[in-house]
Specification:
Layout (H helix, E strand, L loop, with lengths): L5 E3 L5 H10 L4 E6 L4 E7 L2 E7 L6 H7 L5 H14 L3 H7 L5 H19 L6 E6 L14 H9 L5 H7 L6 E4 L3 H4 L7 H6 L9 H7 L4 H13 L3 E4 L15 H5 L6 H13 L6 H4 L8 H14 L13 H19 L2 H8 L17 H13 L3 H14 L4 H12 L9 H10 L4 H13 L3 H14 L4 H11 L1
Antiparallel strand pairs: 1-5, 2-3, 2-5, 3-4, 6-7
Length: 481
């Protein structure tokens, strides 16, 4: 179910809202408001990096006091200086020697997590996502997977009625998700929750799982609820008696196994794949050939999705790693979507989108043919594949403006590659500097990434060359409100 960007948390559960924003890699500020306060979660590419609250008890000093990190006397002294100097309370506490910088680092992260966790307790309130750049300059930010945040927050819920209302009917059968992005997210399950997983065998109903659990019914139901909320579990279709035992692609041991590859070796592997991503064929990404069967392809997809899941590397030293992993992960998913079915695989291996075919006498494949194939992939929503083909067409014939325009358009359809869409449009403008449509498209790109001043400038240029350009007119109207 598609969840709107604005609504009531009574109608749409907060865990599902956050899961959707994470899957869409949304960047913006999610506000949750009640008559008494407003709390905000700042998201960058779907991950929560900071949080704020207008509720007085959520302030840093109060949080540190409740956590036993400072005394009442120290708290009062810091508040007194804060009122006189307007400095940040954390900085004051460090200057006074009440906290070490390490304590402050812990305190800010603790505050952010507690603000987010508190939102899961709310039963009434309105949420709204303001998309665009996150308005925070905080130095200390979270590096915690959304799955873990939701897991920890939901585990604090003690309202049985709410859990029952938000859960599916107890007569349905649950199984491990068939979506590796949900399955392999970084969630640190408690020992008791790990023990619950083998009970979820794809044959038992929720009621049967709860009844066969060694813990009390409420705790068992809450465990199922949290795993279902973050997408690790999903409904298995069909009546319980009709469901036959099948071979699972992953085992519970696979799911719980920590990432073992050495960081240096893994980083080298990521760099090599990422730098060649536009040149790698789909079958090369999935590490298969034309003789591979559907089961092998599926197993490879799960293994690779696990290896390159961004959640599993949030603490890596390379700040660009998450973007690279996201690009690789999306490309792997696109490849699997194309090659998982026999018909699609057969068509792929018989076309130029598969293994390299013989070159023409001129030593090059036709740019028009590549462009045509790119259009076909675009229409199928295979945007990663379309990007590769449009790039090849533009590489063969860089003077063809249409190739650059479509390359930019395809890139805008891939959330983490929006910034890359700028360069092809600039190439199109170089080739056709009097074409207002190119400026309008560039303005829309800037508007989508939150660069409103740049967007306005491009819209004005578009109207200079094409006074009737509808895109530019609407864009300027949107900016001016």
């Amino acid at each position: 179910m598609e969840i709107p960007l604005k609504g009531s948390i009574r109608d749409y559960s907060l865990p599902k809202v956050l899961v959707q924003l994470n899957r869409k890699r949304a960047t913006g500020t999610l506000s949750v408001s009640t008559p008494n306060f407003t709390k905000k979660i700042y998201l960058i590419k779907g991950d929560a990096v900071f949080a704020s609250s207008s509720y007085e008890d959520d302030r840093l000093g109060e949080m540190l006091l409740k956590a036993g990190k400072i005394t009442v006397e120290q708290y009062d002294k810091s508040v007194e200086i804060l009122k006189a100097t307007k400095k940040r309370q954390g900085a004051i506490l460090v200057e006074l020697g009440y906290l070490t910088p390490k304590d402050l680092f812990w305190g800010v992260k603790y505050q952010v997590k507690e603000i987010i966790y508190s939102l899961f307790q709310l039963e009434e309130g309105e949420f709204e996502l303001a998309e665009g750049d996150v308005p925070t300059q905080e130095v200390i930010t979270l590096k915690m997977s959304m799955g873990n945040l939701i897991y920890e927050g939901v585990k604090k819920i003690e309202n049985w009625t709410r859990i029952r209302q938000e859960m599916p009917d107890t007569g349905i059968v649950l199984r491990l998700s068939e979506d590796p992005i949900s399955l392999f997210q970084n969630v640190e399950l408690s020992p008791n929750d790990k023990k619950m997983l083998p009970l979820i065998d794809g044959r038992k109903t929720i009621k049967e799982i709860v009844d066969s659990s060694w813990t009390n019914s409420f705790e068992a139901m809450k465990t199922i609820y949290v795993l279902w909320s973050i997408g690790i579990l999903e409904e298995k279709k069909g009546a319980p008696r009709e469901i036959k035992e099948t071979t699972e692609t992953v085992s519970f041991e696979d799911l719980m196994q920590p990432f073992a590859e050495e960081e240096e070796a893994f980083m080298k592997r990521v760099r090599e794949i990422y730098s060649n991503l536009d040149m790698l064929k789909m079958h090369e990404l999935l590490e298969i050939d034309k003789n591979s069967d559907a089961e092998t392809i599926k197993k490879n997809y799960y293994r690779l999705s696990r290896d390159f899941h961004p959640d599993r590397h949030l603490s890596a030293s390379d700040a660009t790693l998450i973007d690279k992993l996201t690009a690789i992960s999306d490309a792997i998913t696109t490849a699997y979507s194309t090659l998982k079915d026999d018909s699609g695989r057969k068509e792929y291996f018989s076309s130029s989108a598969g293994p390299a075919k013989e070159k023409t006498a001129a030593g090059k494949e036709s740019d028009e043919e590549q462009f045509k194939k790119g259009i076909d992939e675009f229409k199928k929503n295979n945007f990663e594949a379309a990007v590769v083909l449009f790039k090849e067409a533009a590489g063969i014939n860089p003077k063809k403006t249409q190739y650059w325009s479509y390359l930019s358009l395809a890139l805008t359809k891939i959330p983490h590659r929006l910034k890359e869409a700028e360069e092809p449009l600039l190439e199109a403008i170089k080739l056709e500097p009097l074409n207002g449509e190119h400026y309008a498209n560039l303005g829309l790109l800037y508007l989508k990434t939150g660069l409103t001043k740049r967007a306005a400038g491009q819209f004005e240029k578009a109207l200079k060359f094409d006074p009737g350009n509808i895109k530019a007119q609407k864009g300027l109207k949107q900016i001016k409100g």
